Structures are given as structure tokens and as C-alpha cells.
């Protein structure tokens, strides 16, 4: 690359929107591609709520991934926002990575999204994920279906968890991206703040450790984030917001045991991310029906 000629003929760079049904494995795939955990994941659908940006650096290319919430039929205001976030990412992208759960298809969401992707101009790579969970003969039938019913550029079977065919998929993406200068500095991983990721890690623990409506009725804000002892300790105070008073007891648990587990688990993840010791203090509050309240949604970052 020359700094005067500005010729980037040999360098590829662009935005890739990762879209798919809830639970297809989009966030797991992003973390796998980056080799770092920046997007939270869980067994439950609709874990991701925001647009999560991650930058991959390769010889000859910079690929900017946008992880999105799953596309599904939204009912309340929060969910309408979530689906809008996902659909907006498609319009910003140079290339679409359409992730499907080959082991547990979600025909309604997949059909809706496939129709939509067929109607736009950007090239689409179909990643048939979770092939570690299916038989080879079933996989062939799925490939057959997706290659005959639609016209997508590439169909590639992968496993985000096991790392199968990730390199092949990345090479295919690189080849399909436009030539041009990188968008981000060469050490950039994400545009998200450590504060935001810390709040997400707490939310991930809540998804893992509570059931029913609780994860969906929860938002997390980080109220203070202070470096101490020359950066060797970070003090974080965060609030878990719930929709109803009756949910408080569930999150806190018997003698505070549940909240304690959430605190310990998320602290460990945040310590790993920041590579420092973390002192984490959690508070629990109710903000009545926040999922329908536009002001509360804004306050919580949605
Ligand atoms: N067996 C298997 N599970 C996977 C794979 N990719 C993701 N998962 C699991 O699928 C669930 C949903 O993953 P997540 O990344 O949160 O999905 P998202 O909603 O599309 O972002 C999690 O429990 C993941 O561990 C895979 O390749 N194989
Ligand atoms: Mg996700």
C-alpha cells in the first residue's frame, strides 16, 4: 500500500451483516471469527438486542462484522426495535452472512428472511451452522433445498462451536468484498465500550442462570466503571432492571444466593475481558413495564 497513491487494489475491506433466525448461532460465530468474546450468547432465543460490531484483520483484508438480533415476529416495542436493528444492518452491509441452524430449522423466520434477502442486491453467503449436530445425509438434503429454492451466491456448512470450515467461509467472504482501504485502525476489535460489554456479560449470566420471563424482562446498566490501583482493579456498579416487583425475589434468590451467583459468574467474565481484577456490585430495581416505555428503552440503550 502506498500512502500517496491511495491504491487499494490489493486490499479488501467491507461490512458483513450476520443475520438469521433467533438462536441460529450468529453471536457464537462472530466470537469464533474474532477469536474473542464480544457478543453474548445463550441457549435461549433473542439474547442479542443491539448491533454488535467486530473487526477481523487478515493479510490483505479487513472484514467488519455486524452481529444482529434474530429476525422474528415482533410484538412489543422492545422487540420491534430489535428486529429493526437487524434489518437496518442488511442495508449497511456489502455482504450478507445468512446463518441457519441446520439441526433445528426455524421455517417461519428463515422463509421471511430468505424472501427479503432475495429481493436485495448484495451478495449472500448461506452458512449452514451446527453441522456437528446432524447426520451427513441430512446435511446433503438441506444443501439441496437451499440451492434449489433460492439463488444465493455461496452455501457453506459450518460449525461455529467446533470451528469447522470457518477459514473456508472467511476466504469466500474476503473474495466477495470490494477493494478499498480499511475502515478501522489495525488493532481495533470493536466499537463497543468496555462498559457496554460488561453490562452484556451480566445480562448473559442472567440468561444462563434464570428461566421463564426473567431474562426477557431484564435490562442491565453500568452506573460506575472506575479504574483503580493503576489499572489493576476496576470497580463496577451495575443495576439489574426488572419489569415487576414480583421478579425481584427470583433474581435475588433465597438469602441472596441467585444474585450472588450472577455476580460471581459475570465478574469472572469481565475480569477475563479486561485482564484485571474486578470488584462488581450489583443492584436490583424495578422499572415498571420498561419494554413498552420508549424513555426507559432509550435509557437502557435500545
Ligand atoms: N452444537 C452447536 N451449537 C451451537 C453452534 N453455534 C451456536 N450454538 C449454540 O446455539 C445457541 C445459540 O447461539 P447464539 O450464538 O446465542 O445464537 P444467536 O441467537 O443466533 O446469536 C447457543 O447455545 C450456542 O452455544 C454450533 O456450531 N454447534
Ligand atoms: Mg446473538
How do the helices and strands line up, and which of them pair or pack?
Layout: E1 12-20, H1 26-34, E2 52-58, E3 61-67, H2 77-92, E4 95-101, H3 107-118, E5 124-129, H4 136-149, E6 154-157, H5 166-176, H6 194-209, E7 219-228, E8 233-242, H7 246-252, H8 257-274, E9 277-286, H9 294-299
Parallel strand pairs: 1-3, 1-4, 4-5, 5-6, 8-9
Antiparallel strand pairs: 2-3, 7-8
Helix pairs in contact: 6-8
The structure holds guanosine-5'-diphosphate and magnesium ion.
Fold and architecture overview:
This protein is α/β, with parallel strands linked by helices and 302 residues long. The chain folds into two domains: 12-176, P-loop containing nucleotide triphosphate hydrolases (Rossmann fold, 3-Layer(aba) Sandwich); 194-299, K homology (KH) domain (GMP Synthetase, Chain A, domain 3, 2-Layer Sandwich), CATH 3.30.300. Helix content is 36%, strand content 23%. The strands form two sheets. The chain has a six-stranded mixed beta sheet, sandwiched between helices. The chain has a three-stranded mixed beta sheet with strand order 7-8-9, covered by helices on one side. A hairpin with a 2-residue loop joins strand 2 and strand 3. Helix 6 runs antiparallel to helix 8. The longest helix has 18 residues, at 257-274. It is globular and about 55 Å long. The two termini are 40 Å apart.
**CATH superfamily grouping of the largest domain:** P-loop containing nucleotide triphosphate hydrolases
Please mark out the parts with pLDDT under 50 across 5 or more consecutive residues, or reply none.
Answer: none
Order of strands across the main sheet: 2-3-1-4-5-6
Categorize the overall geometry: globular
- The tally of beta strands, per DSSP, is 9
Profile the largest sheet.
6 strands, mixed
Identify the CATH class of the largest domain. Answer: Alpha Beta
Residues in helices, as a percent range: 25-40%
Going by helix content, strand content and strand pairing, the class is alpha/beta
Which small molecules are bound? guanosine-5'-diphosphate, magnesium ion
